[in-house]
Amino acid sequence: MNIRNARPNDLLNMRDCNLDCLPENYQMKYYFYHGLSWPQLSFVAETDDKEIVGYVLAKMEENPEDVPYGHITSLAVKRPYRRLGIAQTLMNLASRAMVENFHARYVSLHVRKSNRAALTLYKKSLQFVVADVEPKYYADGEDAYAMRRDLKSIWDKYGPPGIPFKETKSKPTDS
C-alpha cells in the first residue's frame, strides 16, 4: 500500500472511489477545483497495482475573519481496505499539510449522524469534537454533525518555527 499526494491524473479514480463508497457525489469540476487550488492537501491510497482504494479531498476555508483552517470535503476507503488505518493516515497527512502549508489551526468536516463508523474514527482516533448539528444538511434530508479537530499537536511538531499556536474557540456539543 502506498499513500501519496493526489495528482491531477488521479481525480477520475478518486471520483470512482467516491461513487463506490459514498452516497454523496460531486461533479468532476469540484475535484478539479480542489486539486488545482490546494494540490498539497489531498491524498490517495493505492495498491501495488496502482488501484486507488482510498482518498481524502481537502481544502482551506477562505474566511478572513477567522484563523486559517482547513476542511475535509470527502474521505472514502473501499470496503475491503477498511479498518487497516488507511483513513486515519489520509486524515493525518491532510491535517499536517494544512499546518505546514497554510498554518491551519483546526480542520472541520461534516458527517452523517447515522454514520457510526465514521463518527468512531473521527472522535476516538482523530480527536474531532462535534461543534454543531446542521439540520437536513444532506440531499436526502439527513442531519449532519459539523465536527472540528484542533491541530495544536500537529502544529507543535510541524508548524512554522517561532510562530505560536493561536487557540480557537470551539463550542463542542454533547452529541
Topology:
Layout: E1 2-5, H1 11-21, H2 28-37, E2 43-46, E3 52-60, E4 69-77, H3 86-102, E5 106-112, H4 116-125, E6 129-134, E7 144-150, H5 152-158
Parallel strand pairs: 4-5
Antiparallel strand pairs: 1-2, 2-3, 3-4, 5-7, 6-7
Helix pairs in contact: 1-2
Instruction: Give the number of DSSP strands.
Output: 7
Structural class: alpha+beta
Portion in strands = 25-35%
Radius of gyration: 16 Å
How would the global form be characterised?
globular
**What strand order characterises the main sheet?**
1-2-3-4-5-7-6
CATH topology: Aminopeptidase
CATH superfamily: Gcn5-related N-acetyltransferase (GNAT)
Give the second-level CATH assignment, the architecture: 3-Layer(aba) Sandwich
**Overall number of structural domains:** 1
Euclidean distance between termini CA atoms: 35 Å
- What's the number of helices? 5
Protein name: N-terminal amino-acid N(alpha)-acetyltransferase NatA
Keywords: Acyltransferase, Transferase
Family: Belongs to the acetyltransferase family. ARD1 subfamily.
EC number: 2.3.1.255
3D structure, described in words:
There is one protein chain. With 175 residues, the protein is of the alpha+beta class. The chain has a single domain, classed as Aminopeptidase. Helices cover 31% and strands 26% of the residues. It is built from 5 helices and 7 strands. A 7-stranded mixed sheet has the order 1-2-3-4-5-7-6, sandwiched between helices. The model has no long low-confidence stretch (mean pLDDT 90). GO terms for molecular function: protein N-terminal-serine acetyltransferase activity; protein-N-terminal-glutamate acetyltransferase activity. InterPro entries: Acyl_CoA_acyltransferase, Ard1-like, GNAT_dom. It comes from Fasciola gigantica (Giant liver fluke). Belongs to the acetyltransferase family. ARD1 subfamily. One of its GO terms (cellular component) is NatA complex.
